[in-house]
Amino acid sequence: MSQIDLFRVLAALALLLAAAHGMGRIFARFRQPPVIGEILGGLLLGPTVLGQLLPRAENWLFPAEGPVASGPALVYQLGMLLLMFTAGVEMRTVFSRRDGRSVAVIALAGMVVPFGLGLLAVSVIDTEDLLGPADNVSALTMVLACAIAVTSIPVISRIMLDLGIIRTRFARVVLSVAVVEDVVLNVILSVALGMVAGGGEGGFGLAHTVGITSANASAAYHSVASVAFFGLMTLLAVVLRRRPGGTAGAADHPLGTVAVRMAVLLAVAASCVFLGVAPMFGAFVVGLMSGLAGRGSQSEPLGQLRGFAAGFFIPVYFAMVGLKLDLVHSFDLWFTVGFILVACLAKAASAYVGARLSNRSKAESLDLAVALNARGGPGIVLATVSFEAGIVNASLFTTLVLTAIVTSQIAGWWLERAVSRGAFAADRALAPPPQDPSGKAPVEAKAG
Question: Which residue has the higher pLDDT, 115 or 246?
Answer without folding.
Answer: 115
